[in-house]
Amino acid sequence: MKGNKNDAILWIIKGDHDLGTAVLTYLHIPEYKDTVTFHCQQAVEKFLKSYLIFLGIDFKFSHDLIYLIELICVEDKSIETFYERIVKLQNYAVEVRYPDESVFLTD
After folding, report:
1. How far apart are CA 93 and CA 79, in angstroms?
2. Containing domain of residue 87, as a range?
3. 86-90: average pLDDT
4. Burial level of 54, CB count in 10 A (0-12/13-18/19+)?
5. What is the pLDDT of residues 3-46, one digit of tens each?
6. How far apart are alpha carbons 68 and 65 in whole angstroms?
7. Contact at 8 Å (CB) between 37 and 92?
8. What is the spatial distance between Cα 40 and Cα 34, in angstroms, rounded to a whole number?
9. Which of 10, 61, 70, 64 is CA-nearest to residue 41?
């Protein structure tokens, strides 16, 4: 194992909190799709950072999921299978946080 396992676990825990928030919000206030998508993006970001730490890969702190997955690809090419999904989540870090009628979210 290359990276610090304890630091990676801390990032997973924080990601789980975001994912839990997304699930609870979706189940109880489904019209808050902006909040759900934001927390899903945040969860994935934290899970990717956890994996980078586990792999021992240095990274700059960024909300850029594409940057993070490309760093992982250097060590683990299998992550490429998630690339298209990551691209879809990419803009949910910022785009959905502000009023914008051009952003339409569905279930």
Report:
1. 21
2. 5-93
3. 87
4. buried
5. 688 999 999 999 999 999 999 999 999 999 889 999 999 999 99
6. 5
7. yes
8. 10
9. 64
Domain count, the chain: 1
Query: What is the three-state SS of the chain?
Result: CCCCHHHHHHHHHHHHHHHHHHHHHHHHCCCCHHHHHHHHHHHHHHHHHHHHHHHCCCCCCCCCHHHHHHHHHHHCHHHHHHHHHHHHHHHHHCHHHCCCCCCCCCC
In a domain, 12, yes or no: yes
Amino acid present at 67: Y
Task: Check the CA dihedral 24-29-35-40 and report its sign.
Answer: positive
Stated length of the chain: 107
Structure-token pair, residue 22: 């997304």
Per-residue tokens: 80: 């490429």
